Amino acid sequence: MLSTTPRTRPGRMKERARTGREDLYAVLDAGLICHLGVVRPDGTPTVLPTCYGRIGDTLYLHGSTGSPSLRGEGEVCVTVTHLDGIVLARSVFNHSVNYRSAVVYGRPRVVTDPEERLAGLRAITERLAPGQWDAVRLPTRKELAATALVALSLAEASVKVRQGPPDDEEEDYALPVWAGVLPLRASWGEPEADPALPAGVDVPGHIASRAAPGR
Amino acid sequence: MLSTTPRTRPGRMKERARTGREDLYAVLDAGLICHLGVVRPDGTPTVLPTCYGRIGDTLYLHGSTGSPSLRGEGEVCVTVTHLDGIVLARSVFNHSVNYRSAVVYGRPRVVTDPEERLAGLRAITERLAPGQWDAVRLPTRKELAATALVALSLAEASVKVRQGPPDDEEEDYALPVWAGVLPLRASWGEPEADPALPAGVDVPGHIASRAAPGR
C-alpha cells in the first residue's frame, strides 16, 4: 500500500486515486521519461524532462555532474504521466483526459557506491532501451566520473488513473451529441540506422522485436 | 526571438537550444498536456500534469477553484515535452532521446474578465479536442463559476530540441554495434463511443478525421 502524507493525500478527484504499490510500479515501468521538479535557489520551480530507472522501491535519475538539479540538495518531485485518450463529453465542462500518472516526493540521495552506481545506470538505460546494456560499450571510468546519479525513495508517492467514457450531467445524456473516448497510443516506428553505420550491421533482435512486437 | 534570462539561459547541451518564438509555438501547439510545477507552502516542489491552451503569447491553464496550484500565487513552471525516439548509441554513455521541449516560467494571472475567461477555456478545449467547443453544450454560469482560469505570459521561455542519430565517441564508430534511432510515435485510435450513447449518433467529422487523417 502507498502511504498517505500531506503531499500524497488525494485532494480533488479522489475516485481516481490508486493506493497499491503495484499500481505505482505499473505506471513507472510503463514510462520512458519523467518530469523532474526542483526548487531553484531563487525559490522558483523548474520542471525538466529526464530519464529514470527503478529498482525495487528506489527510483534512479542521472545527469551531468555539472547539472544543478541533481546535486541531491533539497526536495524534488518526479512525475510520470501516460496520456491514454481524450474524453469527449456532451458538455465542454466535462471534457477530460484518460491518463495514468505517478507522483513521487522526496529528497534524493547522491549515489557514490560504485556497485549501486552501475546498477542504477543500468536500470536507467534498460528502461529506455532494454537489452542495450549488454550489447554496447559499457561506461569508462572517465564517463562514470562525469555522471551524477541520485536515488529517490518511492516511500512517498501517489498514483491517479482515469479510464472510461465521460461522466456527463444527467440532463446532458439526452443531447444529440456524440460522446466517447478518442484513444491515444504510442508506438515504435521502424529503427532508423545511423548513416555512419557500416553495411552489414543488422538491427539486433532486442531492438527489432520492440519495433514490431507482432512479428 | 525568445529572451534570455537566468532561468532560460542554456546551460548544458547549448546546441539543443532553439531561440525563435515560432519554435516555442510549434512545441506548445503540438502538445496535449503540460507538466505544471509549483512550490508548495512547505517549500517543496509539486509537478502535476494538466491541460493548457495558447492564444498568442499567453498560455491558459484551468482547474477547479478548489485546486491549490492555480490560485495565481507565486511563480510556476510549465513544461511541454514530446518524446520522439530513443537514440541508441554504440556506448551506454551516449544513449539519449530525441525530443522537443518547451519550458515556460512566470507568475500566472488569475483571469476574471468574462470574455477572456471564455476565450481561454475555449483555447484549452480546442487544444485537446479541436471542433468540440462548437459541437457540445457550452458552460453554464454555475460551471464557469466553478472553474479557475489563469494566464501565463510566454515572455520567459526556452525550447530544446534533439534530433538525429547518436553522437558517439570517435573511436566507437568502429565497433560492430548497431546504432541509430528507434522512433516513437503517438497516434489516435478509433473513437470509442460512450456505451450510454443512443443508436444513430455518428462520430462527427471533426473527430473521425483526427483519428484517421489518411482517409
TrEMBL record, chains A, B:
<protein>
    <recommendedName>
        <fullName>Nitroimidazol reductase NimA, pyridoxamine 5'-phosphate oxidase superfamily</fullName>
    </recommendedName>
</protein>
<feature type="region of interest" description="Disordered">
    <location>
        <begin position="193"/>
        <end position="215"/>
    </location>
</feature>
<dbReference type="InterPro" id="IPR012349">
    <property type="entry name" value="Split_barrel_FMN-bd"/>
</dbReference>
<dbReference type="Pfam" id="PF12900">
    <property type="entry name" value="Pyridox_ox_2"/>
</dbReference>
<dbReference type="InterPro" id="IPR024747">
    <property type="entry name" value="Pyridox_Oxase-rel"/>
</dbReference>
